[in-house]
Amino acid sequence: MSLIKITKKKYPVEIDLLYATKKNFTGKQIYKRKDCYLNKAALPIFEKSVELALKLDLKLKIYDAFRPTEAQWKLWEHTPDENFIANPKKGSPHSRGVAIDLTLINKKNRELNMGTKFDDFSSKSFHGSNKIPRKAQKNRYILLGIMLSAGWDFYKNEWWHYQLFDSKRYKLIKNNMLTKPIM
Asked: Which DSSP category does 30 fall into?
């Protein structure tokens, strides 16, 4: 298995997997376990992004990373909108372990204002949106700068989503392929 577990013990990050709670756009708990994984191919650039954030006295707060294909189907069944949810027939970068949803937090562990919440499915979530306060625009550019400098690609409709380039070259991973399934 090519997935590596990401923990707060290993990395100076916060982890709040919202799909392991009911505090997500579906209102339902998707994951039974709060285990955060990334494909080992993403590890070097993840580590670089952690390092770059720390240099700015910031930390990454992870909302989601690896997402089993079964979870992708649940999200799609709730909101079948390809502007924000990858069609599971095509496969999501999350279901390959090569995508991460995150924000930035300050020294007091407070999230920086990004203009919208995670999983806000409106044009305010787009990179470059001028429909949000200037401070939020600045914070998004800081996050974008960190992630691009580390080597991630971004998705234009979601300020929180970053993925490896050429993500489709990685295999889709189902929940039952995990040693400890998360669903």
From this structure: -
The catalytic residues are: 158
Provide the CATH topology of domain 3-177: Muramoyl-pentapeptide Carboxypeptidase; domain 2 (3.30.1380)
> 119: phi > 0 → left, psi -120 to 50 → alpha, else beta; which?
left
Give residue-wise pLDDT tens across range 105-148: 999 999 999 999 999 999 999 999 999 999 999 999 999 999 99
* Residue count (the chain): 183
- What span, in angstroms and rounded, lies between the C-alpha atoms of 164 and 181? 23
Largest CA distance in the chain: 45
64-117 pLDDT per residue, tens:
999 999 999 999 999 999 989 999 999 999 999 999 999 999 999 999 999 999
- From residue 29, alpha-carbon distances to 32, 37, 72, 80, 81 in Å are 7, 18, 13, 18, 20
Residue with tokens 């993925």: 163
Domain edges within the chain: 3-177
How many Cβ atoms are within 10 Å of 161's Cβ, its own excluded? Answer: 26
Helix (H, G, I), strand (E, B) or coil at 96: helix
The answer to whether the CB of 29 falls within 8 A of the CB of 22 is yes
The pTM of the full predicted model, rounded to 2 decimals, is: 0.96
